[in-house]
Design brief:
The complex is a heterodimer of chains A (422) and B (223).
Chain A: H1 3-13, H2 15-75, E1 77-83, H3 88-94, E2 101-102, H4 104-111, E3 120-130, E4 136-143, E5 166-169, H5 171-177, E6 184-187, E7 190-197, E8 208-212, H6 213-219, E9 225-226, E10 228-234, H7 241-251, E11 255-259, H8 262-325, H9 327-335, H10 340-374, H11 385-411, H12 415-421
Parallel strand pairs in A: 4-8, 5-7
Antiparallel strand pairs in A: 1-10, 1-11, 2-9, 3-4, 3-10, 5-8, 6-7
Helix pairs in contact in A: 1-10, 2-8, 2-10, 2-11, 8-11, 9-12, 10-11
Chain B: E1 4-17, E2 20-33, E3 37-41, H1 48-55, E4 63-68, E5 71-72, H2 78-88, E6 89-93, H3 104-109, H4 120-130, H5 146-158, E7 164-168, H6 176-191, E8 195-200, E9 211-216, E10 219-222
Parallel strand pairs in B: 3-8, 3-9, 6-7, 7-8
Antiparallel strand pairs in B: 1-2, 1-4, 4-5, 9-10
Helix pairs in contact in B: 4-5, 5-6
Classes of the chains: A alpha+beta (422), B alpha/beta (223).
């Protein structure tokens, strides 16, 4: 006969008491394991929601990109026609072309049957010093306005021409010169009447002066020459710059075509704002999930200790009851020579069995309850080996602590008193 | 007569009562040798059970000594006394005190928890056969008659082949036939060289005893 055999026989004899002890441990451990599994499920669900939102944002961004492309296609896009030998690096560095082409090129385009471009704006641009204004830097643009197509129905021009003898001034220029519309101002030895003063734009337009193309050609000694043709709202069926380039190359072989930057900037800005909105939405979701998690944590922090203390109280009381019911048995075991530490082991062994069995059952129950309520599809990812070890290890320890006092009392029971009473 | 298995010298024991100490055993000296069957009888409260429990190492006396197989029980530590008791003393009680959830076989081998022996189950089977309990070997005490229960208790007491058997009213809950059978087993044990100390109300027990002791007010009044 061993202590374990005695314990197991007693357990099978007093099944209800054992089952109730087991249930109490099971509930306590299930509460702990369930709470931890739910919190893990919450974290995983948060990751899933955030990942889904990010994926949705990516899709929305891609769709937005596509929509913008389509919108820009419908609206048309802008191209700049430059002399073929123009170095683009210089263009981007200086903001204007340093090579020139005949003004006649724009007339050739206007007379052609090209359909992919429209709104032709020839110009001669030059960065210069303005001697009458203390040698300040000025960008002078000579323009003749929109050149109408010979073979198309006349449309209202997208940009009005600057009449000879007049000047349109950017914000910094008229502010610096202290002039207003109607005033006269000198530019490189010529007198111009101020036709318009632009408001602040925050770009190079603020230091630009627009005059007629003819007068610009005279000032810069480039008669009959321009250095760029801006074609606005071009339409391309294939949504490709290549088509426009090919069409223009057949008419003006000595030119090159680049896309004007505005739509790229617009797209980038739209993307930036959309991404910002998406980020804000994701952050808001994260904050809400974190708040919910802290609420659940607080609830678990109250519920789990209550369940554990309740379980320990139950184990302690039921062990007291078990000791009382087995007084005669303890007395006769002592009479048979069983030592007090063996009596202690009988009761603590039973508590350990209840703790281990209840811990395993409770851990399993808590895990499955947590997965059921956790609303996370990936069940294996909820499994936490550390939680299993902690639950199955903690339960017998708590059961042993709870059973310690009654077991000690049983081991110190005087067999003579019991046997005399019996 | 061989050396005494149980040697009691000037044993005194009192209990604390509401109006002071109550004397249970007063200055008793007694020895039981191997082959002796001593029956102690007397009225209730005369100190018989106290004498028996003190003889078994379960109740420390106020003074005096109790030696079993040459060793002073109360000079030992608690664990040593428990081991000595397991090896040297068998108990039989009026209430049988079988463990209710163990079957006959497990009840008989229960003492091996205190002191393991080689082939404890084989020895238990042998005792169970000797007491005619083969058909009841896997029955729990609740399924046994009172006579059968007492025979199980006897088999349990004999598992370690103790030199001393202490019996406290073993026939108190038995009918006449079963009571006689138990007393006959005790006599048989003594005849085989064992020492028996029987505490009883039953005057018929004297017929089986080699010596009868009458106790009154905690003292031996007649031998």
């Amino acid at each position: 006969m061993t202590i374990w055999r005695l314990i197991l026989r007693e357990i099978t004899h007093r099944k209800i008491g054992f089952a109730l002890g087991l249930l109490s441990v099971c509930i306590a451990v299930a509460t702990l394991a369930g709470a931890m599994t739910l919190l893990r499920a919450h974290d995983l669900r948060t990751d899933q929601i955030v990942a889904a939102k990010e994926a949705e944002t990516q899709r929305e961004m891609a769709k937005m990109e596509d929509d913008y492309r389509k919108i820009m296609k419908d609206l048309g896009f802008n191209v700049l026609i430059l002399p073929k030998d123009q170095n683009l690096a210089d263009l981007y560095a200086d903001d204007f072309a340093s090579k020139y082409m005949p003004e006649e090129y724009v007339d050739r385009l206007a007379k052609s049957d090209i359909v992919t471009i429209q709104h032709l704006l020839p110009s001669l641009q030059q960065k210069a010093r303005w001697p009458e204004q203390g040698d300040r830097t000025v960008i002078v643009i000579g323009t003749r306005g929109e050149v109408p197509y010979a073979q198309r129905t006349a449309k209202s021009p997208i940009l009005e021409a600057v009449r000879p003898g007049t000047i349109v001034l950017g914000y910094e220029l008229h502010r610096g010169a202290k002039v207003k519309e109607g005033d006269t101002i000198a530019l490189m030895g010529r007198q111009f009447k101020v036709a318009k003063c632009h408001g602040e734009r925050g770009n190079k337009d603020d230091i630009t002066a627009w005059i007629s193309l003819r007068e610009a050609q005279e000032i810069f000694r480039r008669p009959g020459q321009i250095n760029g043709i801006l074609a606005l709202e071009c339409v391309c069926a294939a949504d490709s710059l290549e088509k426009v380039r090919a069409d223009i190359a057949t008419i003006l072989p000595d030119t090159q075509v680049i896309e004007f930057a505005s739509q790229v900037i617009a797209r980038a800005e739209a993307r930036r704002r959309a991404a910002e909105a998406a980020r804000a939405a994701i952050e808001s979701e994260k904050r809400q999930r974190a708040k919910l998690r802290s609420e659940r944590e607080a609830f678990a922090a109250v519920l789990v200790p209550i369940a554990l203390v309740g379980c320990m109280a139950w184990i302690g009381l039921s062990t007291f009851g078990n000791v009382r019911d087995r007084r005669a048995e303890i007395g006769v075991l002592r009479a048979l020579g069983v030592r007090s530490n063996q009596i202690l082991a009988v009761f603590l062994g039973k508590a350990a069995v209840i703790g281990i069995a209840g811990g395993i059952a409770g851990c399993a129950a808590g895990f499955f309850a947590g997965t059921a309520w956790g609303d996370v599809g990936d069940i294996p990812s909820l499994f936490q080996p550390g939680l299993v070890v902690a639950s199955v290890g903690l339960a017998p320890i708590l059961a042993l602590i709870a059973a310690w006092l009654p077991a000690l009392l049983a081991s110190q029971q005087d067999p003579a008193i019991v046997l005399r009473e019996e | 007569m061989s050396d005494p298995v149980l040697q009691i010298q000037n044993l005194k024991k009192t209990y604390a009562g509401p109006s002071g100490a109550v004397g249970a055993v007063a200055d008793i000296s007694l020895s039981v040798a191997g082959g002796e069957f001593i029956a102690i009888h007397g009225p209730s409260g005369c100190g018989k059970s106290t004498l028996l429990l003190a003889s078994g190492g379960l109740l420390a006396p106020d003074s005096g000594t109790v030696s079993v197989a040459g060793k002073d029980l109360y000079a030992m530590s608690g664990d040593e006394r428990a081991r000595h008791r397991a090896a040297r003393i068998g108990f039989v009680f009026q209430q049988f005190h079988l463990i209710p959830y163990l079957d006959v076989l497990d009840n008989v081998v229960a003492p091996t928890m205190a002191l393991p022996i080689a082939d404890g189950k084989g020895k238990a089977h042998e005792l169970i056969s000797r007491f005619g309990l083969d058909q009841r070997i896997h029955h729990v005490p609740a399924a046994l008659s009172t006579g059968e229960r007492q025979r199980v208790a006897l088999a349990r007491a004999l598992l370690h082949d103790p030199p001393l058997l202490l019996a406290d009213e073993p026939t108190g809950n038995l009918d006449e036939a079963n009571g006689e059978a138990v007393l006959a087993y005790l006599a048989e044990f003594a005849a085989a060289g064992g020492a028996v100390l029987l505490v009883t109300h039953d005057p018929k027990a004297a017929r089986h005893a080699s010596r009868t002791v009458l106790m009154r007010d905690g003292r031996i009044s007649k031998t």
